[in-house]
Amino acid sequence: MLGILIICAMVQVKECPTNQTNVAVFDFSGAGVEKELVTTISDLLRLELSNCPKYKIMDKDSMIKVLGTDIVVTGVDKAIGYCESLGISYAVIGQLTKLGEKIIISVSLVNRWTKRELFKDTQKSASIEDLDMVIKRIAEGLCELKKSKGKVTVESVTEEEAKPRRRRESYHSGGLLVGSLWAMGDYFGKEVIGETFMNMGTDLKLGDNIRMMQGGALSYFYETPYYIAEVNYRLHKKSLSSYMGASFGGYRFLTLTDFAPYLGGGLGMSWCSKAVGIDSLYPDYINANGDTVWQCKVKKESFDGMLVELGGGLALFRTYDFHFLVNLKYWMLMAKNYPNGMIISFGITYRKSGSGCGI
Question: Does 214 or 160 have the greater pLDDT score?
Fold first, then answer.
């Protein structure tokens, strides 16, 4: 009877890891993922598993000394063979697979003696930035031999896990954008060109229709993980024509990555003025030589109306205190002839540490 109990105990020891069981974590294989990232994730899992009291993780250099530099394992049979060479009972193998922006991580704990996978787990990461949280969850699952559930993102971890990360929940920031406004019609009048001559009147005339004006915008943003609220004031000018607009908009981020596209729109008011003709000449002043300097009076018109904007852009370095923004918007005024066009702008926003509700 005692012999039977001893045999059962031996079988149990071989089946499941006990305290300080030697385990080798082999490098993952990858599909659609850069080799450097696969190696980094493999090293990260070794580090996380070293915190598990059940396991004594074999040093990577010791593995390379016995097996050579190629320690990528793609199947149970190869893992068992490598375990025999290393003289250990358990191996962790895995694979990273990229599908769009999502990354799928599969891991297995292989028992050398039973020649089967003792434990398997599969996790999905919404982005590369969230992989460290995924590996932490996987390591906890391997330590407890319990599977984690759900896709891991910055929003699916607990509040305690999210604290060390740079991702902020919500905050406000301000920024400056510069760019160009295009009009899809003759809405901004003619360009005024020429110069003023002494004693000879003014050689001013109207040039081509203005279709593009340079300018910029001052913007205020309130941002949550998926949504942005924006208030901005915009000014564009060329020659004697100008465009001013103030709007309030809302946008939605399509991803939670550092390079995040967004779409949305806004409403506001716009005021525009334009040169429509040469009205009259008049003497302006007499210079030191006694010459009369003439000036030209330009006839101008102005109009205003409700502003509608639709568009989107790309936010770079979303998890930092500053963003680089690339914006492309379609605009239309609810005024005569419905002036409309496109605005492309580039800019930077900054959030002072401690502002907003995030970390």
Answer: 214
Same domain, 157 and 183: no
**pLDDT tens-place string over residues 8-41:** 334 444 455 656 788 999 999 888 888 888 888 9
Q: Which of 131, 162, 193 is the last residue of a domain?
A: 162
Q: Show the 3-state SS of the chain.
A: CHHHHHHHHHHHHHHCCCCCEEEEECECEEECCCHHHHHHHHHHHHHHHCCCCCEEECCHHHHHHHHCCCCECCCHHHHHHHHHHHCCCEEEEEEEEEECCEEEEEEEEEECCCCEEEEEEEEEECCHHHHHHHHHHHHHHHHHCCCCCCCECCCCCCHHHHCCCCCCCCEEEEEEEEEEEEECCCCCEEEEEEEECECCCEEEEEEEECCEEEEEEEEEEEECCCEEEEEEEEEEEECCEEEEEEEEEEEEECCCCCEEEEEEEEEEEEEEEEEEEEEEEEEEEECCCCCEEEEEEEEEEEEEEEEEEEEEEEEECCCCCEEEEEEEEEEEEECCCCCEEEEEEEEEEECCCCCCCCC
- Domain interval for residue 222: 171-350
Residue 314 domain flag = yes
Look at residues 277, 262, 269 and name the one whose alpha carbon lies nearest to residue 328.
Answer: 262
Bridge pairing between strands 21-25 and 55-57: parallel
Q: What is the pLDDT of residues 49-100, one digit of tens each?
A: 888 888 889 988 989 999 898 888 888 899 899 999 998 889 999 999 888 7
